[in-house]
Specification:
This protein is of the alpha/beta class and 425 residues long. It contains eleven helices and 26 strands. The strands form nine sheets. The protein has a five-stranded parallel beta sheet with strand order 5-2-1-9-20, covered by helices on one side. A four-stranded parallel beta sheet has the order 13-12-11-17. It binds flavin-adenine dinucleotide (FAD).
């Protein structure tokens, strides 16, 4: 009697999960890919949705469409709520229990508020499309309200935009908000102007982009300041509320606050009943498997792993490399490939953009900043988008923005009535 092929469940169709499924395309396994959303999201360009440069559909693509030619892969919509390790089953929130032989958990991270989850309604983070459209809504609504108020203090509050966290997302958000508000205020409004807008980037550490070399951090700060962003270093936010934020230097009255300061892994460690690090990530073995949980792997942002003395960063290329690697591990386990040995991570470089003409790029062997770096950043992001349609549409949109300074997605569509909450994750 012939046995059915081993069943691999992959949870999460982000960079890690999708890459793992695709790398198993020619393997004698049955794959079920489960995600709570029906689309793969290109998170690196979410900030462009939040600042009205792109529309959501331009950075997302249906998972079924990505895998439509892969006959050994089945896609299921559902939110995973637990894992029964003894029974080798995954639990989905609608009551389904699905058996697995191998389980790959690639559920990523979400933003976190250092124990102050009550700050979220006032300072949304940027992780999902709903977050991006909510932030876009708040920025555009603040401009509209500022145009009609007669109260100068209220106008100042409406036109103050605070970004908390000076990592790549915070830097990109602050630069993009500065450009959006300055260009929109210069061209499309009658009573308020670019000089009325104030954009403040607050970072608790000593420099922005702390993972980059100091020289690039300094250049990034200078580029932000040229765009009119006020960079405040060494300051921690102590309160976020409807009025704005409180920092060491006092209170900043602001209608729009964006949180880009911390992340926490999805509850994978709880599902597996294994220890997690401070960010909630599961410490995996050098082959990315989970100790004492046979057949279970954790990859991408949800995994904590070091290669040599360097911990693997929570970025898309790392998640993709882990996805390919675990596919090789599974092929080895089913007797279809050689032992891949321990996971090895190749760091291609760090990139961050600051507005529409500047970026910093660190490939290790070469460091660049300014316009040329921005071109490299743009080409890399278009290349890594998932479909040809999205590549084309994003390239045309960017060209249009570049020439006309016009942002095509400046729409207020009512997202503020349904703010996403932490419960959503
Ligand atoms: C705003 C922003 C900007 C970024 N910019 C860059 C950048 O410029 N360059 C870069 O390299 N990296 C960047 N990153 C990081 C990069 O996006 C992540 O490292 C990468 O997405 C991690 O991939 P992953 O597969 O681990 O998780 P994700 O890509 O986050 O995918 C997780 C998937 O799991 C699904 N999921 C989660 N929980 C469940 C559940 N319970 N049940 C079912 N499905 C679930 C989610 O719906 C999602 O599809 C950025 C991240 C953000 C948020």
């Amino acid at each position: 009697m012939r046995h059915p092929p081993p069943h691999v469940i992959v949870v999460g169709a982000g960079f890690g999960g999708i890459t793992c499924v695709q790398a198993l395309a020619k393997s004698p396994v049955r794959i079920t890919l489960i995600d709570r959303r029906n689309y793969h999201l290109f998170q690196p360009l979410l900030y462009q949705v939040a600042t009205a440069a792109l529309s959501p559909a331009e950075i997302a693509w249906p998972i079924r469409s990505i895998l439509r030619r892969q006959n050994n892969a089945d896609v299921q919509l559902g939110r995973v709520v637990g894992v029964d390790v003894a029974a080798r089953q995954v639990a989905v929130d609608d009551g389904r229990r699905i058996d697995y032989d191998y389980l790959v958990l690639a559920t990523g991270v979400r933003h976190a508020y250092f124990g102050h989850e009550e700050w979220e309604p006032f300072a949304p983070g940027l992780k999902k499309i709903a977050d991006a459209t909510l932030i876009r809504e708040r920025i555009l609504s603040a401009l509209e309200k500022a145009e009609i108020t007669a109260d100068p203090a209220e106008r100042a509050r409406l036109l103050t935009f605070v970004v908390v966290g000076g990592g790549p997302t915070g830097v990109e958000m602050a630069g993009a908000i500065a450009e959006l508000t300055h260009h929109a205020l210069a061209q499309d409004f009658r009573r308020i102007g670019p000089a009325d807008a104030r954009i403040v980037l607050i970072e608790g550490g000593a420099r922005v982009l702390s993972a980059f070399k100091e020289e690039l951090s300094a250049k990034t700060q200078a580029a932000l300041e040229r765009l009119g962003v006020e960079v405040r270093l060494g300051q921690n936010v102590t309160v976020c509320d409807a009025e704005g934020v409180e920092v060491a230097g006092g209170r900043l009255f602001a209608e729009t606050v964006v949180w880009a300061a911390g992340v926490r892994a999805s509850p994978v460690a709880r599902w597996l009943d294994v220890p997690a690090d401070r960010a909630g990530r599961v410490a995996v073995r050098p082959d990315l498997s989970v100790p004492e949980r046979p057949g279970v792997y954790v990859i991408g942002d949800a995994a904590s792993v070091s290669v040599g003395d360097r911990s693997v960063p929570g970025i898309a290329p790392a998640a993709k490399q882990m996805g390919v690697y675990v596919a090789r591990q599974i092929r080895f386990a089913v007797g279809q490939g050689p032992d891949p040995g321990p996971f090895r991570y190749r760091h291609a470089g760090d990139l961050a953009t600051i507005g529409r003409r500047a970026a910093v790029v660190d490939f290790g062997w070469i460091r660049l900043s300014g316009y040329f770096a921005w071109l490299i950043w743009g080409i890399a992001h278009i290349y890594f988008l998932i479909s040809w349609r999205n590549r084309l549409v994003v390239a045309v949109n960017w060209l249009w923005d570049y020439v006309t300074f016009q942002r095509g997605a400046r729409l207020i569509i009512g997202a503020t009535t349904a703010p996403p909450t932490l419960r959503d994750d």
